[in-house]
Every structure is written in structure tokens, then in C-alpha cells.
Amino acid sequence: MTGPVLHLAVEIDGDGAHPAAWRRAAHSPDQLLTPRRVARVAAVAENAGFTLITLDDGVLPPGASPDPVGRIGAVERAAFVAASTSTIGIAPLVPVTYAEPFHVSSQLASLDHVSAGRAGWVVAEEERPEAARAWGRPLVADAEAQARESRDGVEVARALWDSWEDDAVIRSVATSRYLDRERLHYIDFTGETYAVKGPAIVPRPPQGQLVVLARPGRVPAAQLDVALVEGRDLGSVAAAAAAAGTPRVFAEVEVALDTPDTTATERVADLERHTSWPDRGRLRHIGSADQLVALLTELTRHVDGVRLHPLVLDEDLPVLSRRVLPALSERRLVARPLPGTSLRSTLGLERPANRFAAAAVAAQEDAR
């Protein structure tokens, strides 16, 4: 635990956590994929004082008919948001079940440069068989194989982020040298299904290593910075958090809040007339802002942060901004990210040393 501070993240993909959230959105469906929409939601979250926004993604369209479906890639949206924000962390979901880890690591390193060190990575799997056909790849069918791809993908990405030492770029006009080749390294990774030699094509990220988030068990705890734990009640969340073994633990919480015009229960019932809210095994709060504040206060005993999944962003995010975060701030349970601070620093995580530079120093000391 980092102390009394609870870090709050919010998922801002689509119109909300409910499949029919678009029916209560404050905009027409054709506005969902516009730059103005994603920038506005990110600005609301940043101004409210959230630590982090996450952006869900996948190669297949979200949802199903008759609901509107479609999304722009999470990394592309994250890069756009990075240019229009200044303090909030930004973590796109990027599966490596079929995507090339070399390219994923380059995209994410670039995002960290664009955001000046505010980037994270939510690791997940492409579970539907149609995803393999969309990628033109052999099916990765079972959960164990999907976890292997995630594990290897994170290992490759982390190694590639270290394949450039921090001072590899020298930009020497006098000698016409841009790079110190001695500070670029091959990673020589060989897994069960592929091999990667490296080095990367993007300089080491400002954070050294991006903040990596995932569900426990999908990626080894040693490769994670933040475990995203689930549970339908506080006891289950507490048990999962205690077993995570990661530097930080965030609880997954779905929320539907009372608004000035409608109760949370009425809002959920209205959407349930069209389709059900899938049970993903997460803690779910349906009720008032004050009750949510009490729940989050209780969660500070077990986790370092919470990722909120609002029922309908246009309705719940304003309540979170005006009622929930200010109340938590008054209790000194949350802290607003500071300008010029990296996501790692905000979360109280150290900037990791470069593995190749550290190995060279160790070798020199052994030789003495």
C-alpha cells in the first residue's frame, strides 16, 4: 500500500460499461468516434483529478446489433488524448495474443514520449476465435496459451524498452553521431512461438518502463506494476488483493450513480429493458455518491487504487467529478496528479534501472 492515498482510474471507452449505454448518452451515436468526444471525456476526468484513464480495445467491434458498434484503436486515441492533457495518466488496452510484441512495444514507447511519461499499458487477451481470422493468424484457443502469449509479450516489450540505454542518443554535431552504438543492445528473446532479437526502433521511454497493468495470473506478478483484481464483494476483492504480489493493486468496480433527475436503480432498469448488463465478476455499486464514497473509503484498507467502470459516462462521470472525488479529497484519501510528474511517480513507483546498463556496471565491479 502507498498510504492513505487511493488512486482512481476510469475506463472511458465507448459510452459506458452497459452495452446499451449509448441510449442514455448526451450525444447522437454518430458523435461517439469523433476527436471532440474523446478529448472532452478525457478533459472531464483530468479536471476531476483522476490518476488514470484507460481505453478498452480489441480487433473486433465491441457490442452487437442492434446497438451501434465500432471504435478507433486505443493507442491512437491515447496518443490524441496525450496531446490535449497534461497531468492524467493514459493506459490503452493492447492485446498481444496475435499482435507483434515488437510493434506493440514501439507504439507504447512512442506514447510515453508523446505524453511526457504518463503512459501505461493494460494487458489483456483476444479471446474470441474471430480475432484470429481478423489477424490472419492461427487460433490461440485455450486460456493457458493465451496467458503464454501475454506473458511473452510483456517480457519482450520490457526487454525492448531497455534495449536503448538512457544516454544512447548523443546528438553530437561535432562528430556527426546521433547514437552511441555501444548503448544499444540485442535482447535475444526466444519463446515457444516466436523469437525477437531487437534492439527497439524507439529510444527508451521517459519512464524507463511504462506502467503495466493486468489481471493476476495472466502475466507473472514480477512483470506487473499494477494488478487489476476482481470480486463480487469486499471479501473477494480483499483476498485477491492480498494474493496479487504486485507493487500496486487496483480493484475493478462498476458504478451506476444517482443523478439529479433519476436514481441509479431507475437508470439501470431503463437500460435493462434493451439488454442485460453482463456480470464480469466485478464489485458493482448501484446507488448514491455518498454510498460510493463509503465503499471507496473501505477499499483503501485493501487496495492502492480503483478502476471505475461507469454505467453511462455522460451521466456518471459528472457525478463522480462533482460529488465523489471532492468528498474523497476532503477526507485526504485521494491526491490530484501534479504537472510534470510521470505516471510511475504518481503511483509511487521507482523508475527502473536499465538492465543492460546495470549488468555492465556489475561486470565492471566484478572485474576489479
Kindly describe this structure:
The structure is a single chain. The protein is of the alpha/beta class and 368 residues long. 36% of the residues lie in helices and 15% in strands. The chain has 11 helices and 13 strands. The chain has helices at 35-48, 74-84, 101-114, 129-135, 143-162, 234-244, 264-272, 289-299, 313-330, 343-346, 355-367, and strands spanning 7-11, 52-55, 89-92, 120-122, 169-172, 177-179, 189-190, 195-196, 211-214, 226-229, 248-257, 283-287, 305-310. The strands form 3 sheets. Strands 1, 2, 3, 4, 9, 10, 11, 12 and 13 form a 9-stranded parallel beta sheet that branches. A two-stranded antiparallel sheet has the order 5-6. It has a two-stranded antiparallel ribbon with strand order 7-8. Strand 10, helix 6 (234-244) and strand 11 form a beta-alpha-beta unit. The radius of gyration is 21 Å and the shape is globular. The model has no long low-confidence stretch (mean pLDDT 94).
